[in-house]
């Protein structure tokens, strides 16, 4: 889906953004006819509320957009996206009232309000199109919106149409768009080229497991993005109950998010060398499924005891992270729908991340606040390292006890990222369980815009 701003024209309907306490003053400055219309319709400037003002012929000549109070706005984001969704089809421009510091967030939210996933059923997003507000980089926001739409489309597509084959094709399509290169190692070649854990997790599925490796850029600092591409997760032999399996089409949300972020990076022409690594598998049940009690030897040489086949994401990520670290990049990031513990800890809106680098943590927090893409730091808590060591192997893929599941998973991944590069891990949810402004129910990008905003600082671009 392509979301674009409207071209400025004299016919664009002016939108006056009014906080609750500004309504009375604005109305007092209008004609008696407008005053009567606003009063008759009871418009009070409530957050997200709208009112069209008709001209003499009945056609709208202006629109009022409620902006509520500062306290109300703190409880959400993309408030004008609700306005976009409630206005009729047409072209609009912000005429007054929108604070300059919120213009980019609200313009992007308005743009994303036009998103709808209609591959299987006709749906439409908001039809009210916006002229980019003054001072906003329209082209940049359109590229960001396109990356977000890519992420959403990939997550929303069910595994029947988004298995490892289709995920690989999505990477090829993206590469072709930006002049990137893609290589793929699949099936038995994963064993001969030393990706044993990716192979073990995906070998029971009809579609072969694979490692997708996309590269772009010839100069600048090296950035590696690693995304979990488990296209469907049954839990393996530790089979999930039906209720827990219902959303497992989104278990490739990490891969979808790094592909969306990659689109943003390439589309904006950032001066860096990008590498995207996606271990793409389906965790299925068959006679050759990997088993509880198995011990796997990873690409890095560390042995891993399998105590739960439903903790498979960290296994495929481990081999990919080991490969990424071998190139000694300036920064490596992993994104994964990895643990339910992260969702329980911070809910579906926040993107929890782990890093040992204080500068990265600070840059991410500041960037996230600027672009309304909230993140929250969780600790690489070293005292929990012992929980990962089962005795019979170097590592345990699913420590018993049920405590700090997101932290122990992140510590597991850190063992494979090593000390060769600065490393940060995101344990995202990748799903909006209910419709919110600019975020319909379904797949959603998390953390990508914060990372994009922080990259110039993180990599000194």
UniProtKB/TrEMBL annotation:
The keyword Hydrolase applies. Belongs to the peptidase M17 family. Residues 308-315 form the Cytosol aminopeptidase domain. GO terms for biological process: proteolysis. GO terms for molecular function: manganese ion binding; metalloaminopeptidase activity. SUPFAM superfamilies: Macro domain-like (SSF52949), Zn-dependent exopeptidases (SSF53187). The keyword Protease applies. PANTHER family: LEUCINE AMINOPEPTIDASE-RELATED (PTHR11963), PEPTIDASE B (PTHR11963:SF20). It comes from Thalassovita litoralis. Pfam families: Peptidase_M17 (PF00883), Peptidase_M17_N_1 (PF21337). GO terms for cellular component: cytoplasm. It comes from the Bacteria. Keywords: Aminopeptidase, Hydrolase, Manganese, Protease. InterPro entries: Leucine_aapep/pepB (IPR011356), Macro_dom-like (IPR043472), Peptidase_M17_C (IPR000819), Peptidase_M17_N_1 (IPR048816). Coiled coil: none annotated. Gene3D superfamilies: Leucine Aminopeptidase, subunit E, domain 1, Zn peptidases. This is Leucyl aminopeptidase.
């Amino acid at each position: 889906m392509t979301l674009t701003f409207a071209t400025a024209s004299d016919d664009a309907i002016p939108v006056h953004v009014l906080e609750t306490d500004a309504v009375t003053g604005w109305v007092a400055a209008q004609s008696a006819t407008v005053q009567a219309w606003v009063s008759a319709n009871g418009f009070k400037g409530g957050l997200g509320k709208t009112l069209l003002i008709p001209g003499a012929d009945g056609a709208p000549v202006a629109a009022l957009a409620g902006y509520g109070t500062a306290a109300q706005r703190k409880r959400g984001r993309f408030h004008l996206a609700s306005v976009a969704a409630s206005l009729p089809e047409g072209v609009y421009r912000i005429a007054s009232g929108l604070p300059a510091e919120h213009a980019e967030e609200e313009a992007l939210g308005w743009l994303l309000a036009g998103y709808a996933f209609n591959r299987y059923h006709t749906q439409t997003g908001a039809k009210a199109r916006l002229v980019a507000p003054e001072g906003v980089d329209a082209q940049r926001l359109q590229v960001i919106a396109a990356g977000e739409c890519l992420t959403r489309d990939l997550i929303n597509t069910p595994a029947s149409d988004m298995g490892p084959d289709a995920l690989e094709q999505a990477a090829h399509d993206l590469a072709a768009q930006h002049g990137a290169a893609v290589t793929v190692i699949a099936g038995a070649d994963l064993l001969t080229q030393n990706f044993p854990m990716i192979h073990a997790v995906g070998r029971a599925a009809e579609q072969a497991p694979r490692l997708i490796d996309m590269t772009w850029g010839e100069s600048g600092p090296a950035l590696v993005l690693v995304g979990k591409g488990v296209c469907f997760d049954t839990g393996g032999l530790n089979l999930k109950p039906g209720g827990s399996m219902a959303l497992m089409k989104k278990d490739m949300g990490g891969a979808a998010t790094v592909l969306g972020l990659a689109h943003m990076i390439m589309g904006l022409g950032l001066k860096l060398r990008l590498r995207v690594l996606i271990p793409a598998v389906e965790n299925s049940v068959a006679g050759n499924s990997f088993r509880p009690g198995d011990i796997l030897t990873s690409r890095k040489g560390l042995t891993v005891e399998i105590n739960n086949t439903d903790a498979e994401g960290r296994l495929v990520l481990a081999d990919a992270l080991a490969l990424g670290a071998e190139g000694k990049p300036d920064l490596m990031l992993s994104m994964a729908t990895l643990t339910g513990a992260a969702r329980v800890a911070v809910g579906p809106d926040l993107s929890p991340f782990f890093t040992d680098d204080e500068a990265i943590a600070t840059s991410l927090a500041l960037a996230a606040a600027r672009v309304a893409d909230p993140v929250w730091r969780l600790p690489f808590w070293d005292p929990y390292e012992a929980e990962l060591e089962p005795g019979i192997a170097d590592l345990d893929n699913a420590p018993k006890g049920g405590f700090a599941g997101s932290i122990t998973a992140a510590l597991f991944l850190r063992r494979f990222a090593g000390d060769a590069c600065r490393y940060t891990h995101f344990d995202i949810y990748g799903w909006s369980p209910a419709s919110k402004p600019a975020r319909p129910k379904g797949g959603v990008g998390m953390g990508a815009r914060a990372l994009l905003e922080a990259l110039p600082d993180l990599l000194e671009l």
